[in-house]
């Protein structure tokens, strides 16, 4: 009998897309939040806090870019 739908592979794709979608969105929102905090702390003359916010924002932006690159590589090889 022919298998019409590979449920195991379909379920893995659904779970992976939900995790990736929520994860990348959350990481990018941290980058946006950090940028806003950097501006606020810079205006309040709090250079250490501003630097920490900038570092966190850069890390989150780099993680977002890495997730996008990994997604493109996976799609190109799959």
Please, could you describe this protein's structure?
This protein has 78 residues and is mainly α. It is 87% helix and 0% strand. Helix 1 (7-43) packs antiparallel against helix 2 (47-77).
Offer a concise description of the structure.
This protein has helices at 7-43, 47-77.
Write the layout of secondary structure elements.
Blueprint: H1 7-43, H2 47-77
Helix pairs in contact: 1-2
**Alpha carbon gap, first and last residue:** 27 Å
Q: What is the number of helices? A: 2
Instruction: Give the ordered list of helices and strands.
Output: HH
Helix content: over 70%
Shape: elongated
Radius of gyration: 19 Å
Characterize the biggest β-sheet: none
Helix-and-strand structural type? mainly alpha
Q: How much is the average pLDDT? A: 93
| Total strands | 0
Strand residue percentage: under 5%
Structural key phrases:
single chain, elongated, 78 residues, 2 helices, mainly alpha
């Amino acid at each position: 009998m022919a298998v019409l739908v590979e449920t195991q592979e379909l379920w893995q794709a659904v779970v992976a897309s939900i995790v990736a979608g929520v994860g990348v969105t959350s990481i990018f929102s941290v980058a946006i939040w950090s940028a806003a905090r950097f501006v606020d702390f810079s205006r309040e003359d709090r250079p250490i806090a501003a630097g920490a916010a900038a570092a966190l924002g850069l890390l989150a932006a780099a993680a977002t870019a890495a997730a996008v690159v990994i997604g493109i590589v996976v799609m190109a090889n799959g």
